[in-house]
Design a protein that fits this description.
It contains four helices and no strands. By secondary structure, the protein is an all-alpha fold.
């Protein structure tokens, strides 16, 4: 793949990740109970940011075991599966966006 195309694809991937993180935090802030919103958001952020180093180590072992070209597909397919399960089984798609937020 040419380097400029890789840069464009990386930029698009980053936009998707940034949108997903913003929406996730927005949902937490809107639907978490006011008395524990800060604690819930801190655990949510720890899960997102704290999982990065562990995921990098796991990905390194995976790349060594199956090769980098195949290893790049594994996290993508796992995330696609996870999003499909959450979309299917969770009530997120039925949330009312006009729900009152207790202050």
């Amino acid at each position: 793949m040419p380097f400029p195309l890789l840069c464009v694809l990386n930029f698009v991937w980053g936009l998707g990740g940034g949108g997903a993180m913003t929406l996730g935090r927005g949902l937490v802030q809107q639907y978490a109970p006011a008395h524990s919103r800060g604690r819930i958001l801190s655990v949510f952020t720890l899960g997102l940011m704290g999982g990065g180093p562990l995921g990098a180590v796991a990905y390194g072992f995976l790349a060594k075991a199956v090769g980098p070209h195949l290893a790049i597909l594994v996290p993508g397919f796992l995330m696609l599966g996870l999003v499909s399960v959450v979309f299917t089984l969770s009530p997120l798609r039925h949330l009312n966006e006009d729900a009152p937020v207790d202050a």
